Amino acid sequence: MFDVAIVGCGPAGVVAAALLGQAGHRVWVCDRLPGVYEIPRAIALDHEVMRVFQQLGLVDAVTPFTEPFTPSEWFGVDGQLIRRMTMVDPPYPQGHTPSMVFTQPPVERALRAHLAQMPNVQMALGTELSGLVQDDTGATLSVRDADGQSGSVRARWVIGCDGGASIVRSLVGIQLDDLDFDEPWLVVDVQVNDRGLARLPKTSVQYCEPQRPCTMVIGPGRHRRWEISLNPGEDPKQAATPKGTWALLSRWLAPDEGTLWRQSSYRFHALVAQRWRAGRVFLAGDAAHMQPPFLGQGMCQGVRDAVNLSWKLGAVLQGEVQGLAAEALLDSYGQERQAHVRELTGRLKSLGAIICERDESKARARDERLLAECGGTVRDTPRQDVLPRLSSGLLAAQDTTGRGTLFPQPCDRDGRLMDEVFGRGWRLVLDGQLPAPIATGGLTLIDLAAAPERDGVVAAWMQRHGCHAALLRPDHYVYGTATAPDDLQALLAERHAALTN
């Protein structure tokens, strides 16, 4: 019997398999396609995802296919600048470039190559799921390979990472909630030549134009992406033909200035699963949620799912939590991720409402309002400011401002990143203002008085949140914070109770 069976080997599935495999668990993962889906889909990832790749030892393998995300400038009805989305300034809080563009297929190939080297992970590519039955000790998956041969796989737990049309979700009877976003867009990837590059903007651009909202993203190298909204009455199939696509691109490029790499019409949705767990089955990635494209958060959210679930499943499989505590821990996955996805989707829809206003008078009023809010001078807004913190689940009862946020990863005086020095389990970080507790309950203690950081990112974080201690979960999210010795002892006791009762 496998410890975990994963259906779908896209970004969420391959990361979950890699993390569980790294922890020593027996993992089986399948995908209906025999190889990586070569057409690029996601184009953005962030420092939280790179921190996961760091954990897997894959930063050097994926970095050649990434570049820093340029600022995104938003232009209103009359072509005036109304907003600018950027990155936070160095020193970077997670130890990696906060926002990046990337080319998806080679990154996925690097992840799969990493899986292939793990003796405890078995990949079954070109294999489809046809049935799933659960019982008290596990689940049996009925599968069919590329030759039409049928078989079965037995696992203690199952993760469905099989996309928006998830058969896992269907087989366990989980429904999707519609969060009221349904729009047709054309997505176009172009490899642009020198003449074309000379004509194009030097930053990514959001055209907030009532007649046709659209986006241009500067990808790695010569890759440029356009996301172009389709107007009522326009045929999505015709728009996705070379002739239709070049007609829509004509304001930027001529056919002799670039090569169409990929173009496809999509309907962008905002959907979230009503439940993220059904017995021994969990959903992750697009199987659990689909979001509007603004800020490129789709793949990042899938990786966040995989990380959250993997460490919790790992703790249960290793016997670190049992009984009611184990059930509560596993249930916290859906509580945390569903709330986070819903909150972020709401924020993305609000951005979409700004971008996609079709009424010209309302769009002009929008432009005036945004400029008035910044006093007529557009200021930089870091993309990470849009991301919500965790608000429910495995978190301390006291709702401090630092609770549920992603804790920074500082460098020590020798330039080594925190995760490489101290590991990635439960950690207690002190800023040197509180005495270290005598008993930490198996936590890794990181006292910055004894191990000073180089750039002050933790000191700035502690000051911003008004605390002197942070208790970190294995996924780097803050369980809770403390300002005094009594607060700290109470926090440690609360965490112990949550994982043992």
Descriptive notes:
This protein is 32% helix and 27% strand. A hairpin with a 4-residue loop joins strand 9 and strand 10. The model has no long low-confidence stretch (mean pLDDT 95). The protein has 14 helices and 24 strands. It has 501 residues and is α/β, with parallel strands linked by helices. Among the domains are: 220 residues, FAD/NAD(P)-binding domain, CATH 3.50.50; 83 residues, Glutaredoxin (3-Layer(aba) Sandwich). The strands form four sheets. It has a nine-stranded mixed sheet with strand order 19-16-12-15-14-13-5-6-20, sandwiched between helices. Strands 1, 2, 8, 9, 10, 11, 17 and 18 form an eight-stranded mixed sheet that branches.
For the largest beta-sheet, the strand count, sense and barrel status come to: 9 strands, mixed
Structural class: alpha/beta
Work out the helicity level. Answer: 25-40%
- Rg over CA atoms, rounded to whole Å, is 23 Å
Shape: globular
Amino-to-carboxy terminus distance? 28 Å
The CATH topology of the domain at 2-66 and 101-176 and 271-349 turns out to be FAD/NAD(P)-binding domain
In the CATH hierarchy, what is the class of the domain at 2-66 and 101-176 and 271-349? Answer: Alpha Beta
**Mean of pLDDT:** 95
CATH superfamily of the domain at 2-66 and 101-176 and 271-349: FAD/NAD(P)-binding domain
Number of strands: 24
What's the total helix number? Answer: 14
- Give the DSSP E fraction (strand runs of 2 or more residues): 25-35%
